[in-house]
Amino acid sequence: MTALFALATAVLWGLADFGGGLLTRRMPALTVLVVSQVAAVVVLGALVLGTGAWSEAGPQLWFAVAAGLVGPAAMLAFYKALALGPMGVVSPLGSLGVVVPVGVGLAVGERPGPGQFAGIAVAVAGIILAGGPELRGAPVARRTVALTLVAAFGFGAVMALIAEASTTLNGLFLALFVQRVTNVAVGGVALLAQTRRGAPALPEGTGPRVLWSMLPALAFVGLADVAANGTYSVAAQNGPVTVAAVLSSLYPVVTAFAAFAVLKERLRGVQAAGAGLALAGTVLLAAG
């Protein structure tokens, strides 16, 4: 079950990253972040009301609040990086945050077997290689790498926090709702401050109609992201966090292939080899 839900997380995060990256090339990253998360709040609010999940409220929700505070900063940095650089490079670097939940798992006493350790090593090496050795270059490229690394460790912190925020399905709905409400509150304040400084919330020369036309895509990004958080939480609760975190972090492979299929971004030989290693590591982890 852990492997299945973790791989589902990778697919959902990969598609959400691809969609978020495309949208950020057409409108400000903060707008993409806030509007997409509002869609997630609406759906999660309905689930919380329909399931009576409020009864699961407890001190563990502070983990969800913390995840909601860290998440917007990480997502904003990541969307900006996706807008600046090739998705097939940025997304694999963004998965380096896997060291945070893996470190937490090891700290609490998890000890994967030899096969799983080998799978972790192979998968992480594949994720890194899938980005290609394109870390040098102009100042814009260096800025892209810096933004991506900030996002990576933010994502890793969110993974670790959300796994601690609930122990039941209804509790998971409530935790994700609290996280997304916090996301919207933090992102909304930042968006308001940005507009007061004169930065547009929408592309210059456009109006609300443009936002309305992009609403389905924005909703997809928000819902895919929150669904990925949910499947990751289930994976982490039903098996070793180390395994769940590494398998979930295969999402860059999904993003890279989506960019190849839709945007025709060329995959270099080292990227293809990295994708192959990542898949081989998946097999070792699942078998272990």
Automatic annotation (TrEMBL):
Secretion signal span: none
Keywords recorded for this protein, A-Z: Membrane, Transmembrane, Transmembrane helix
Residue ranges of the TM segments: 6-23, 30-55, 61-82, 89-109, 115-132, 144-163, 169-193, 214-235, 241-263, 270-287
InterPro entries: EamA_dom, EmrE-like
EamA domain residues: 3-130, 145-285
Family per record: Belongs to the EamA transporter family.
Name this protein carries in UniProt: DMT family transporter
Organism: Streptomyces katrae
